[in-house]
Amino acid sequence: MNSKVFMVLRILLGLFVLVFGLNKFFHFIPMEAPTGDAATYFGGLASSKTLILVAVVEIVAGLAFIFNKFGALMALILMSVSVCAILFHATLDSENIAGAAILLVLNIAVLFGYKDKYQSLLAG
Q: Rounded to whole angstroms, how far apart are CA atoms 43 and 39?
């Protein structure tokens, strides 16, 4: 992948997850409250403090991508958040899946950009 394209994708992903991670603490982006099963799911995540963990992972990953430190590791860790977001929206909130889809596509692109870092992991 072209290094300038990768840099732009990495910084976009970093800003994306940093903003949404900070939003979980400071609520500066208005979001409509979930209803039905989605509300029950989010209630469980909130009461178990899992949303705080997700927010911290997003903030750390965002900073790692922006400053290009430990980005390959954070791309792997962030993939679990991306997959969970897609599954949540696909099953419980399909009208709002666009953000999760953008997150997943950017995360896959960044993983692909770091593919040289994963060679030893995949060597067997």
A: 6
